[in-house]
Amino acid sequence: MGYVRGLKCRECGREYPVDPIYVCEFCFGPLEAVYDYKKIKRVMTRKAIEKREKNLWRYKELLPVDGEPQAGLQSGFTPLIRADNLAKEIGLKELYIKDDTVVHPTLSFKDRVVAVALTKAKEFGFDTVACASTGNLAHSVSAHGAKAGFKRFVFIPASLEPSKIVACLVYEPNLVAVDGNYDEVNRLCSEIANKYEWAFVNINIRPFYAEGSKTQGFEIIEQLGWEAPDNVVVPCASGSLLTKIWKSFKEFKEIGILKRLETKVFAAQATGCSPIVVAIKEGSDVIRPVKPNTIAKSLAIGNPADGFYAAQVVRETGGYGEDVSDEEIIKAIKLLARTEGIFAETAGGVTLAATIKLVDSGRIKRDESTVICVTGNGLKTQEALSGHTSSPHYIKPNLASFEEVLKKIGGS
User: Fold this and answer.
1) Would you tell me how many other CB atoms lie within 10 Å of the CB of residue 389?
2) Confidence band for 232, pLDDT divided at 50, 70 and 90
3) Which domains are seen in the chain, by residue range?
4) Is 147 exposed, middle or buried (0-12, 13-18, 19+ CB in 10 A)?
């Protein structure tokens, strides 16, 4: 058996049993998994964790499942890279990249949440899984759902990048392209979820699905030698990842694994879809929906479900939010690749570009430790760089032709 006590409304505090429900029937607030930390503290120690397989399930006591994992055995424990070259370029003393571009089967952090969601779907007895997605979640549900033997229905905006569509279809799900943006796709999926008995990972299974994001935070702490960074910068779409990273830090503090927690949490969004950052900058509790217009399509959620809670975390920790233009996103993607050899998708460009602004404005101190969360691989969003890279050197198949080029580029 697991260590989940039940579900609890984040607004009114009303408690519910562990069922595939996601909204409070009294105040319509979102539900969240709550744990028995006293019992967890007795069994979950640094030594116990260190002896386990290097995947996300090494933190199983703090994940909302009862039995053994049913998905994601090859997901998690991605590298935390000390980025000294990049740090020198942007003027930081101690900078780390939490690199979710590698290790995961579908090359994004969504493999974390899907691993937990599908395991829970199996425990609930569902035979069909579904999702609304801007791309990465579609890949993950398609792939892990195939491995776990589920029927799969994946709903995406029809305007999604062609490469992301192909990366879904290869797993042969039922892929449904909707004529609308993500928020319109998500509204449709809510209607479908109310009619069909399917496990919609980011609707009726959302309280369990979202908990998978905590594993990124757990790994950051462990990989920093069981210490928390001074700052962490997180890209925001729905805002859930940011809230769950902070929850993971607090849980490690609660059970005694983390001794000191003074981390400031920062939100990063594209200017073309930045409702959370706008609220943070205005000091407002109201997240005003927007119509997305940005190359960072994986972050293009105009009405973020966890936006209010993400802004709340940022204020609680003394952090801030920053938004960046498409031009700044592309520049940051290229900077990260050139300095650290990491090819990030557009969301990673958002996070780095926002970090640069936060450093330049003094919000992030240059002598503090900072972790940047890079959540997906750049191979997923190559279209965004079209026309923004240099061209190859074309030559004839002979030495003389090569040496002409060598002279032009200043080689010896």
Assistant:
1) 12
2) very high
3) 80-105+211-385 (3.40.50.1100)
4) middle
Residue 178, strand partner residues: 157
Q: What percent of the chain has pLDDT over 70?
A: 99
Q: What local confidence, expressed as pLDDT, does residue 331 receive?
A: 98
Alpha helix segments (H runs only) across 224-324: 240-254, 275-282, 307-317
Mean of the per-residue pLDDT values of the chain: 97
Question: Which DSSP state fits 384?
Answer: G
Tokens of 296: 């960072």
Q: What is the pTM of this model?
A: 0.96
pLDDT at 243 over 90: yes
Taking the CA atoms of the chain, what radius of gyration do you get in angstroms? 21
Distance in Å from the first CA to the final CA of the chain: 67
3-state secondary structure of 198: coil
Axis crossing angle, helix 214-223 with helix 240-254, rounded to the nearest 10: 50
For the ranges 181-185, 220-224, 349-353, the lowest mean pLDDT is seen at 181-185
Phi-psi region of 242 (alpha: psi -120 to 50; beta: other; left: phi over 0): alpha
